[in-house]
Specification:
This protein is mainly beta. It has four helices and 27 strands. The strands form five sheets. Strands 14, 15, 19, 20, 21, 22, 23, 24, 25, 26 and 27 form an eleven-stranded mixed sheet that branches. Strands 1, 4, 7, 10, 12 and 18 form a six-stranded mixed sheet that branches. Strand 8 and strand 9 form a beta hairpin. The radius of gyration is 23 Å and the shape is globular.
Length: 420
Amino acid sequence: MVLVGALLCGWQAAAADVAAVTRIFRTPRYERGRLNQVVCQPVDEAAWIWHPDVTDSPAFVRFRREFDSDGTPFEIDVSADERFVLFLDGRFVTRGPNRGWTENWQYQTYKVEVASGRHAFEAVVLRLGTSAPITQMSYRGGFVLKASDGYDAKLTTGKAAWQVGRLSGTSVGSKFVGHGAMGGRATSVGVGFEDERPAEWKVAALVAQPIKITPQRFDWGLRRPGWMLYPSEIPDQIERRQTPGAFKSGPIDLLSPLMEGKSVTVAAGTKLTACWDLQNYFCYYPEIRVSGGKGSRIVLHAAEALVDAEGKKGRRDTCVGKTINPHYDMYDTFISDGRSSARFTTPWWRCGRWIVLEIETGDEPLTIESLDILESRYPCELQSAFVASPDASFEAIQRICLRAMQCCNHEMLMDCPFYE
């Protein structure tokens, strides 16, 4: 269950007005049957929508729809092409859809419980194009949401008047060999794409109507082109916020309070580099929140291991005399425009044990309010037991094997998240 607080569009609900969003599962579909020919599931009654002026990729767009509730619970089915991040009343709900292809496109279903009053859904939809992770499919840009019961007219795309705006603050470069699983490097200016507001809102355009094929056309054996929607059968990925490990190089005394959830201030005219040892392997979305420091540049490098002058990894638990491997340098860049509490993150997860942090401030000091990672992976845990007594080393080997399996389990199984 996800608990969602309320803060959006200039108004704030009372502390007791907390929404509960619970993942539920539709009956799995193992046969295509008449899918995309006749209505086979609730989501088929919704239209796909998109920005009327956006035809290129990479592209980031934000959808929003405000609605009134009498406190009655309801269900939603939701999907997008290529990816979405869903918010309710300004707070994160989920991301998706799980990976599929046009003729087996995935959607997720949730039960939503909100207090009576005014609420709002927002969805940031990403089309990453050539910057997308390996095997990410796409038909065209689109977003679809189907709401149940009395919320159908209020929320269902194609029936409700959703607004959409383009986000221009984040750009993504093409991915390169060795980092297909993580997509391209991102650069965000001002604020991250999840929190950015569009300069202009427009009425969302319909790009695929609800299924309304007549019996005569069905008799001809035709079906409409595009997404064939199947309910996802796997749980949502873990979204576990944490600040593990410690800084092992650089201005440790300055940055270490971040590991305790405290803010730090980097003076104007400063250039620094620090190595953050997560002390375990993680797949994660990095998240940094900053204030002030107009023009400051923050670069986060993700690495499985650092290398010495000869390009050798050696011991992976040390950074002394080591640096980022220039041939496998996965990094993202965040540039402050001086606003308060600007939150930055990446369009896709990063992975490894080390984060190399580079900060360069301009004429103003930069306050780093928080630095975290959101661990992302399929929620698999050890469900078996094997004892190799009296060999005590087996327990440590087993822990490594389990961690390797966890970090390779996403919506797809990978043999290595960093080099996939």
